[in-house]
């Protein structure tokens, strides 16, 4: 059969015609889908701007809070984040934040639609102790400033929420995380140190903050270190917290005796501390058990930390040390500290914070009872007459027993300020006698 007749027969065959039509439709459909994919990819490359914020980035929490406020009203797919908000009376209030859940969400920001994609992977981020997560923000257009404005808005709102409060940070792995709810700022005047001490330290820090160029012009490392030493309960940590509030800074609290703390991790933490924060190394004398005189204490601390003295010294003023850092160390036993640790350049100002002087007793009385008259002087003279060391913590505990400020009762019961310490001493003596026997 000639080819022309064969083709004519196929053309007249209805089954072949229908099949050919289906094949044609399929080919056209496949080509259309492929074209749409290419067109969509090309459109996204040229006209869609995307910002990815991984959970390790400092702005991640800011973006989550921003999404909570902006996005929860636009979507019905939510997850809950429970936190605790500290009230002025000291009680904690449970707070539930509804956050757009993992997946894709659309919401408006001004005149634009923003696509938010929360992605949570199966793998765990070992440094964060949680699944790795990221947030992507996408919008139509090539203007990156829109997404940068969102970041800045999120940062501003996060700072506004903590305005007038002090944020405490703790080290989790190699990162700093907020620890507990923000604390209400404690007035610096509420922590009574000896006359002139508070102003001396505050003046020194303000001078450091205000004159960075003075350090740079002279090639001096721009950082400042302070050592507060003295008996327990005399206000070292309380003063640092109040000072941070006065300077509108957070506090990064680091325990050098923490299990697993290494030289590299300490160096990373000191370099990556949040901006506008004070680093606090409390009870720094307990970091190295081999320098502790008591064998029992050495055994107790053995193996808790992999930190070395050379690692600590290099972290404080080594080549990689952070600029603009304000660091405080506290100790009850300055005699146990290595001389290299507290030399100038690592510790620029040392201040003894000790037992109450007559000036401190008067000021604490005035603060507690709102009484700046002669009663404060009478009470201070009665306390100092006993010639016994009194810590601010002991004095405050005594004032708590007489909230109404009955001066007669206060004067009569001054000896009871030291009653607890006396009972502890008696118990200690009994324990020593029993061991001897």
Overall helicity? 40-55%
- In terms of per-residue confidence, which ranges show pLDDT below 50 for 5 or more consecutive residues? 292-303, 422-437
Mean pLDDT: 80
Q: Tally the beta strands.
A: 15
Oligomer: single chain
In percent terms, what proportion of residues is strand?
A: 15-25%
What's the overall geometry? elongated
Largest sheet composition: 7 strands, mixed
Q: Report how far the terminal alpha carbons are from each other.
A: 127 Å
Strand line-up across the major sheet: 9-8-12-13-14-11-15
How many DSSP helices? 15
Radius of gyration: 33 Å
- Structural class based on helices, strands and sheet pairing: alpha/beta
Question: What letter string, H or E per element, gives the SSE order?
Answer: HHEHEEEEEHEEEEHHEHEHEHHEEHHHHH
Account of the 3D structure:
By secondary structure, the chain is of the alpha/beta class. Helices cover 43% and strands 22% of the residues. The chain is built from 15 helices and 15 strands. It has a seven-stranded mixed sheet with strand order 9-8-12-13-14-11-15, covered by helices on one side. Strand 8 and strand 9 (175-178) form a beta hairpin. Helix 3 (60-71) crosses helix 4 (145-161), helix 8 packs parallel to helix 10 (309-317) and helix 11 crosses helix 12.
């Amino acid at each position: 059969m000639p080819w022309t007749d064969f083709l004519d027969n196929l053309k007249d065959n209805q089954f072949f015609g229908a099949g050919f039509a289906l094949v044609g439709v399929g080919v056209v459909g496949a080509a259309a889908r492929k074209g749409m994919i290419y067109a969509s990819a090309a459109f996204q490359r040229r006209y869609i701007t995307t910002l990815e914020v991984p959970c390790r980035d400092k702005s991640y929490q800011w973006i989550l809070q921003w999404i909570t406020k902006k996005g929860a009203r636009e979507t019905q797919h939510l997850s809950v984040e429970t936190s605790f908000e500290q009230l002025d009376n000291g009680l904690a209030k449970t707070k539930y934040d509804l956050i757009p859940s993992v997946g894709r969400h659309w919401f408006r920001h001004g005149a634009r639609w923003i696509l938010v994609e929360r992605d949570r992977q199966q793998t765990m981020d070992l440094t964060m102790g949680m699944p790795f997560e990221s947030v992507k923000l996408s919008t139509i257009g090539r203007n990156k400033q829109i997404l940068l404005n969102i970041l800045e808005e999120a940062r501003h709102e996060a700072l506004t929420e903590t305005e007038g409060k002090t944020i405490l940070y703790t080290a989790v792995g190699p990162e700093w995380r907020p620890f507990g709810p923000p604390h209400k700022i404690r007035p610096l005047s509420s922590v009574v140190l000896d006359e002139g001490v508070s102003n001396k330290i505050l003046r020194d820090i303000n001078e450091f903050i205000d004159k960075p160029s003075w350090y740079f012009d002279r090639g001096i490392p721009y950082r400042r270190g302070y050592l507060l030493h003295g008996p327990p309960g005399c206000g070292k940590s309380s003063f640092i917290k109040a000072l941070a509030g006065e300077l509108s800074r957070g506090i990064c609290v680091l325990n050098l005796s923490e299990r697993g703390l290494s030289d590299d991790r300490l160096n990373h933490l000191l370099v990556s501390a949040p901006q506008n924060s004070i680093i606090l190394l409390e009870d720094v004398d307990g970091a190295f058990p081999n320098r502790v005189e008591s064998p029992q204490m050495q055994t107790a601390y053995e193996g808790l930390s992999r930190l070395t003295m050379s690692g600590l010294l290099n972290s404080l003023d080594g080549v990689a040390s952070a600029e603009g850092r304000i660091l405080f160390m506290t100790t009850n036993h300055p005699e146990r500290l290595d001389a290299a640790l507290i030399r100038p350049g690592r510790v620029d100002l040392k201040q003894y914070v000790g037992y109450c002087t007559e000036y401190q007793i008067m000021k604490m009385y005035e603060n507690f009872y709102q009484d700046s008259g002669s009663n404060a002087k009478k009470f201070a003279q009665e306390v100092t007459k006993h010639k016994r060391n009194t810590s601010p913590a002991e004095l405050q505990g005594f004032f708590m027993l007489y909230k109404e400020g009955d001066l007669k009762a206060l004067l009569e019961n001054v000896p009871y300020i030291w009653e607890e310490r006396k009972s502890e001493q008696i118990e200690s003596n009994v324990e020593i006698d029993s061991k001897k026997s």
